[in-house]
Amino acid sequence: AIVSHMPSGLVTFDRGGLVFLGNLSAQNILEAGDLKGLNIFQILPELREPTMERRDIVWKKSPEESKILQISVASVYSPVIEGELYIAQIEDLTPLRKLEYSVRQNEKMAAIGGLAAGIAHEIRNPLASISGSVELLSQTTTNDDDRKLMKIILKEISRLNNLITEFLDYSSPEKPPTDPVDMVSLVKEVLDGLKLDAKLRQDILLKINLPEKAVVLGRRDKLKQAFLNIVINAYQAMESISRP
């Protein structure tokens, strides 16, 4: 009963591969029924070369399905069969190897994120120098076209700086929010701000149904930006609707 229910797969066979015993774990790992009487070499050809050392193999049940198995084989003389009896211990390492691969990928992505953050900082430094130089030039030039071009350059530099800031915020580990935010006052603040936005339709009727208070833990600035984007998108989605 112990051998039958042990978590490791256990298979005993003779030199020709004839199986005498295959416990439940071996049946589950090899996705087979009763192994007794079968030839293990047909299921696991790697067992034709028994070795005392543990080794990992890629076992393919079909072209689409494969498992990573760890196998070790020992042998004893059996007077019953009057020859060598081989005992194979089989472990299914597929979940463990997948977890190890996932950890390595996460470590690789973390390293890439650190490298990218360093590059972003290096980009920001020359941008600051370019911005300062352009601002000095704009103070000395009297040509309107040159001033217009310099404003465009400064605007694009500012946009690049904002992109770098967003990237650095995204790549840095985010801590769980601990600040209480009243969502009701935040939503009202967003809607009040939209009333002053001349770019949006002012003939939209807003029906507001909010509780007195709704407090959550979050980051007020990010939540405000999220709600602002949602409401602006709603306004813009109604642009094609005819006005009354």
Secondary-structure content class: alpha+beta
Biggest sheet features: 5 strands, antiparallel
Mean pLDDT: 84
Percentage of residues in helical conformation = 40-55%
Describe this protein's structure:
The chain is α+β, with helices and mostly antiparallel strands. The chain is built from 7 helices and 7 strands; from the N terminus they run H-E-E-H-H-E-E-E-H-H-E-H-E-H. The strands form 2 sheets. A 5-stranded antiparallel sheet has the order 2-1-5-4-3. A two-stranded antiparallel sheet has the order 6-7. A hairpin with a 5-residue loop joins strand 3 and strand 4. Helix 4 runs antiparallel to helix 5 and helix 6 crosses helix 7.
Structural key phrases:
49% helix; alpha+beta; five-stranded antiparallel β-sheet; 244 residues; two-stranded antiparallel sheet; elongated
Write the layout of secondary structure elements.
Layout: H1 2-5, E1 9-13, E2 19-22, H2 24-29, H3 40-43, E3 55-60, E4 66-78, E5 83-92, H4 94-140, H5 144-171, E6 180-182, H6 183-194, E7 215-217, H7 220-237
Antiparallel strand pairs: 1-2, 1-5, 3-4, 4-5, 6-7
Helix pairs in contact: 4-5, 6-7
